[in-house]
Amino acid sequence: MKAELQGEYAPLIADKQQRDRQKAEADVKQHFRSLAEQEVAELRKDPLFVKHTPELRAYLESVEYKVPLTKAWLHILQTKVLPTLSQTERAKTVAELQTQAAASGIKPGAATASTPKEPTSFKDKSLVW
User: Fold this and answer.
1) Angle 43-46-47 from CA coordinates, rounded to 5°
2) Which of 24, 40, 90, 114 has its CA 20 to 30 Å from the CA of residue 101?
3) What is the pLDDT along the chain (129 residues), one digit of tens a residue?
4) One domain for residues 64 and 27
5) Range of the structural domain that residue 65 is part of
6) What does pTM read for this prediction?
C-alpha cells in the first residue's frame, strides 16, 4: 500500500522538487543581480568609469563575461586610462599656468614704472625698521 501511494504521488513530488530548485536558482540569480547593480551604481560615481563604459563592455564581451566587473575595470584602468592620464594632467597644468600668467599684472621683461627713491637720511619715513 505504501509503495502504491509513493508511486502515485511520485510525479507530484518530482514536480514540487523541480519547482523548489527553480525558485532557489531564481533567488540566487536575483541576489547576484542586486549585488552587480550595487557594484555598478558605486562605480558610476567615478567619471572615468562612465567615460570608459563602452571599452569596459567590449572587454567583458571579449572575455565572455568570465571576469568579475572589478577586475575588468582594473584592466581598463591599467591599459586605457592610466597611460593617458599623465599626458592629460600635464596638458591641463600647462594650460592653467598659461591662463594664470596671462591674467597676472606683471609681465616678464616689461620695464618697471618707476625706480624707487633712495633714502636721504635715517629719519626718512620710507625706511621701515
Assistant:
1) 130
2) 114
3) 566 667 778 888 888 899 999 999 999 889 888 888 888 888 888 888 889 999 999 998 999 888 888 899 889 888 888 888 778 787 888 788 777 766 655 665 666 666 667 777 777 777 776
4) no
5) 46-91
6) 0.50
| Backbone angles phi and psi of 48, in degrees to 5 | -65, -35
Q: How far apart are CA 127 and CA 124, in angstroms?
A: 6
Distance CA(76)–CA(68), nearest Å, equals: 13
Residue 15 lies in a domain: yes
Question: Does 1 share its domain with 39?
Answer: yes
Residues comprising the chain, all counted: 129
**Alpha-carbon gap, residue 41 to 34, rounded angstroms:** 10
